[in-house]
Design a protein that fits this description.
Elements (H helix, E strand, L loop, with lengths): L2 H7 L2 H28 L2 H13 L4 H11 L6 H11 L13 H21 L2 H31 L7 H54 L17
Helix pairs in contact: 2-7, 2-8, 3-4, 3-8, 4-5, 5-6, 6-8, 7-8
Length: 231
């Protein structure tokens, strides 16, 4: 017994539940395939991009080299942020009143957040599908069993197990459909989460190194005023 057979004998609610599960399955698989392409070798690409940056002679040279390694555009925004700070803030703006280290910290933080938003895209959808698809399938099963029992109650003749087994078995297909939708989404969410965590650690370390290399050295504190010698 397949979902198509159930839909052929089901009512509007059963068809709506099946359509919702189908939409959840398609959307989750689109996200899974896209994120698999994005994160495939993601840690390796980030490491190669960081190594290429430190081997470059200038920031412009680094940006050119990153085009060959930074496929997901995770490291390049940080390099562009460094160049924007090197140019200085326009006079008469609030940015001009902030010292170089604070401006550098802000732009690196923004670049890191932009990369993390790109990495986290789709994770909420996978988590939602994995958490709700079994219950949507269970709803279809409960409604199917209710309809099957209502139909059996209206039939004439004696009550036999054959009259119950067929309709209930058809309704249970919805639960299996919900699990088939949820399991790939949950597995992909967990695998992608581990990869994203490793990439995030590398990017945070890179941003810290950039701040230490391109930031200004802290100014020495002014010596305390000398105390007058007692007379």
């Amino acid at each position: 017994m397949s979902v198509l057979d159930l839909l052929a004998h089901g009512d509007g609610v059963s068809r709506a539940v099946a359509a919702l599960l189908l939409a959840m399955s398609i959307s989750s698989w689109v996200v899974i395939l896209w994120k698999a392409w994005l994160l495939r070798g993601g840690t390796r690409d980030v490491l190669r991009s960081i190594a290429a940056f430190w081997q470059s002679s200038t920031l412009a040279d680094a940006e050119q080299k990153l085009k060959a390694f930074d496929r997901a555009t995770l490291v390049s925004p940080a390099v562009s942020a460094i160049r924007s700070v090197a140019g200085g803030a326009p006079d008469g703006t609030l940015g001009a009143t902030v010292d170089r280290n604070q401006r550098l910290t802000r732009v690196l933080r923004d670049a890191l957040h932009a990369a993390l938003r790109r990495l986290q895209a789709g994770q909420i959808l996978l988590a939602t599908v994995g958490a709700t698809a079994p219950f949507v399938g269970l709803l279809g099963t409960v409604w199917g069993i209710y309809g099957a029992l209502s139909g059996i109650a209206g039939q004439t003749g004696g009550f036999t197990i054959d009259k119950v087994a067929g309709p209930v078995g058809e309704a249970l297909v919805m639960t299996a459909f919900g699990l088939a939708v949820a399991i790939p989404a949950v597995l992909a969410y967990n695998v992608f989460g581990r990869v994203i965590g490793r990439i995030e650690a590398e990017l945070e370390g890179f941003a810290h190194d950039l701040l230490g290399s391109f930031g200004e050295a802290p100014k020495p504190a002014a010596p305390p005023p000398a105390r007058p010698m007692p007379v």
